[in-house]
């Protein structure tokens, strides 16, 4: 949306004669309409925020009350440094801080031996503890156990989420118009009539004429960019209600991160600032805070720590962003790209493993207005030539990068290298190709979920590409002293945040769809399965050639990242043979995993007692481990809360199977957010299946899952396997036939 800038104070500054009389009255009318649209949007947004706050308050109050109930009343002495005498209050049966907090001054004064000063001190101490607790509690929305209060919160958040990322820009415009028009409209009134203008004093007359000129420029620009229509549309979006409560719940399931992002913004929940800023030294943090972040080309709202990460990349220019997996490194990179695009940069380059190329392309297109061009496959040279000519974000792989012409006049405004630990060995071809590009680019962003303080030599290698002058100061002793010490020492080039530090208001369940392309062997297997009408073979064709399977490669990367972060992983598949191939991939010689860290697979043929032993061994394993499960056997009846990463090898025909499987890990007692990664193949049965299941079928399933009947007989609410299989097979046969 175009920004409304201030105008010169005189008509001559614009090179036009100031309007008077009817023309000014028309301008005033246009200005009033624009002002009303801005005021209406601000009011609608304020009401939407208040609805969220009103729905949030009882939930937060309940959590605070529970916390206060668990704090013994003796802790009130700590707040008053031991000056408070509590013996009489305790003798009266006040056993917790909550009991005192909920009491009135009159109630406490009725206790023998409690005077006015003691009562006031006790209440003040209880309220101080309550305020501290209120800053730490986090509201979680449980989709599997909805109740009226959480439903009210979801419905209130629905309006803000539905308004989309454009709402923030519309509000910024509305604020500017509201403030400026609030001054211009009264000032211009004398110029609405010639007689009124003539009877005005000289200063008011000059001010009115100048205001009329500025008002004309402002309304003309607003008409050109359809500002009033955009503001009105934003208001309509804020007033839009879901067709039903169930629609809001389903939307929450699909976009939970956006709901929690809005919730965090509305509630202004305090986080550990030092942790959210990666324990950077004050001088670096101040430089980052001073860095603006333009959102003109961005289509996603950022959490506070994500905004800081994008600003860090821009302010420090050549850095490693090493956030733990699940914190949105890709979104932070996209935000940096969008900012630089707004500054006028036209060319950008992303280098990544082949397994995430499709995901990068999708994320750029969905999260920004930038053009994403996958430079991969047979057309890569033509696409690369198009990128050099027209600009955009070229997304290529480590293996393709060395085949592309080295940068000359077309230098990327930002080079992003995902999974940067892939270039830790400077002698490899991929590392040498990346080094060539990093030397030619002013801004470089390396992304990796591997904690560099655990691999100091690798970190030196990465920093040598980015800020070689920093290499001599990177000492092993800093890493030995602890992660905080290490991060402060390498702050100019490294930022890392952990989940436990910044996920205070994020959902306990994070869903990520991992899109991959078939390898040539997998494509052949898939076409053969489609020709034969074999639905089950179509579903597992992506694993036909384990050595070249893109899905297995991505799974291997996810498990590897979980390993370096000390996280346990559960891998689900409907097919036993797929799990065997997964086991083989995890035992590949290039992997650091030992066979003893992979448990299972748990399948229908494994006796119940043996299944439980496998789960117990998996849970008891120190640090990282992997458990393989057939989804129909491992998805029901087992408690897998030791795992915080879940990988689904393929989408399921029955959505309840996925829900039940994920619920094995995401349940009461799970202290970390659970990440669910679903492996998907583009242009395949996966695409078809998701398209069908995420439409009305998903709505019906979500409704049925919350009924008593569905809980008792989950199979009764799912789609017919046979009917769905026939439909998908026929559609894929027609699609592939059309390609011949």
From TrEMBL:
Keywords: Hydrolase. The keyword Hydrolase applies. InterPro entries: Helicase_ATP-bd (IPR014001), Helicase_C-like (IPR001650), P-loop_NTPase (IPR027417), SNF2-like_sf (IPR038718), SNF2/RAD54-like_C (IPR049730), SNF2_N (IPR000330). Pfam families: Helicase_C (PF00271), SNF2-rel_dom (PF00176). GO terms for molecular function: ATP binding; hydrolase activity. PANTHER family: SNF2/RAD54 HELICASE FAMILY (PTHR10799). This is Bifunctional protein. It comes from Streptomyces lincolnensis.
């Amino acid at each position: 949306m175009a920004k409304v800038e201030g105008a010169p104070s005189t008509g001559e500054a614009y090179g036009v004669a100031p309007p008077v009389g009817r023309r000014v009255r028309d301008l005033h009318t246009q200005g009033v309409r624009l002002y009303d649209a801005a005021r209406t949007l601000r009011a609608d947004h304020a009401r939407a925020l208040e609805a969220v706050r009103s729905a949030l308050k009882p939930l937060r109050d309940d959590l605070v009350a529970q916390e206060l109930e668990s704090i013994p009343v003796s802790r009130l002495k700590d707040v008053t440094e031991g000056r408070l005498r509590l013996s009489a209050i305790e003798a009266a049966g006040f056993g917790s801080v909550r009991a005192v907090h909920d009491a009135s001054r009159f109630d406490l004064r009725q206790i023998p031996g409690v005077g006015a000063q003691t009562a006031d001190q006790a209440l003040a101490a209880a309220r101080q503890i309550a305020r501290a607790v209120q800053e730490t509690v986090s509201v979680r929305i449980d989709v599997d156990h909805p109740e009226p209060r959480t439903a009210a919160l979801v419905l209130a958040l629905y309006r803000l989420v539905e308004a989309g990322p454009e709402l923030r820009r519309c509000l910024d415009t509305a604020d500017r118009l509201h403030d400026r028009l609030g001054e211009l409209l009264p000032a211009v009134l004398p110029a609405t009539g010639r007689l009124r203008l003539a009877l005005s004093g000289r200063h008011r007359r000059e001010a009115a004429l100048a205001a009329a000129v500025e008002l004309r420029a402002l309304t003309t620009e607003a008409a050109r960019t359809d500002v009033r229509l955009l503001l009105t549309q934003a208001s309509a979006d804020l007033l839009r209600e879901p067709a039903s409560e169930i629609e809001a719940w389903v939307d929450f399931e699909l976009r939970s991160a956006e709901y929690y992002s809005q919730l965090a913004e509305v509630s202004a929940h305090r986080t550990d600032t030092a942790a959210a800023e990666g324990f950077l030294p004050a001088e670096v943090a101040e430089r980052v805070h001073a860095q603006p972040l333009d959102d003109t080309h961005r289509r996603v709202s950022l959490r506070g720590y994500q905004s800081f990460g994008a600003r860090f990349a821009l302010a420090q220019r050549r850095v490693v962003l090493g956030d733990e997996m699940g914190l949105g490194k890709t979104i932070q990179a996209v935000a940096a790209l969008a900012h630089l695009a707004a500054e006028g940069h036209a060319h950008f380059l992303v280098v990544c493993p082949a397994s995430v190329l499709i995901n990068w392309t999708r994320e750029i297109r969905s999260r920004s207005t930038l053009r994403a061009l996958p430079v991969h496959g047979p057309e890569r040279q033509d696409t690369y030539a198009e990128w050099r000519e027209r600009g955009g974000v070229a997304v290529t792989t480590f293996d393709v990068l060395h085949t592309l012409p080295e940068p000359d006049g077309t230098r990327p405004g930002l080079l992003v290298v995902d999974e940067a630990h892939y270039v830790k060995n400077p002698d490899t071809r991929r590392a040498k190709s990346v080094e060539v590009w990093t030397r030619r680019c002013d801004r470089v962003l390396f992304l990796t979920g591997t904690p560099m303080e655990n691999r100091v030599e690798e970190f030196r290698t990465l920093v040598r590409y980015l800020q070689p002058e920093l290499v001599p100061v990177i000492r092993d002793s800093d890493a030995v002293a602890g992660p905080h010490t290490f991060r402060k020492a390498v702050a100019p080039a490294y930022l890392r945040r952990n989940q436990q530090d910044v996920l205070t208001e994020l959902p306990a369940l994070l869903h990520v769809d991992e899109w991959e392309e078939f390898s040539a062997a997998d494509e052949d297997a898939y076409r053969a399965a489609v020709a034969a009408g074999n639905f089950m073979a179509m579903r597992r064709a992506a694993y036909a050639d384990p050595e070249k399977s893109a899905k297995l490669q991505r799974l291997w990367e996810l498990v590897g990242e979980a390993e370096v972060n000390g996280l346990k992983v559960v891998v689900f598949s409907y097919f036993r043979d797929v799990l065997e191939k997964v086991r083989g991939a995890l035992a590949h010689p290039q992997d650091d995993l030992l066979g003893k860290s992979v448990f299972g697979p748990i399948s229908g043929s494994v006796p119940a007692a043996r299944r439980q032993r496998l789960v117990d061994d998996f849970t008891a394993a120190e640090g990282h481990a992997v458990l393989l499960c057939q989804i129909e056997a491992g998805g029901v009846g087992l408690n897998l809360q030791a795992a915080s990463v879940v990988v689904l090898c393929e989408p399921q025909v029955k959505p309840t199977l996925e829900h039940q499987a994920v619920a094995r890990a995401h349940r009461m007692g799970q202290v970390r957010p659970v990440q669910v990664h679903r492996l998907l193949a583009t242009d395949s049965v996966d695409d078809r299946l998701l398209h069908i299941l995420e439409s009305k079928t998903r709505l019906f399933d979500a409704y049925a899952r919350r009924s008593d009947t569905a809980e008792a007989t989950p199979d009764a609410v799912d789609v017919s396997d046979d009917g769905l299989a026939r439909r998908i097979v026929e559609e894929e046969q027609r699609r592939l036939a059309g390609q011949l």
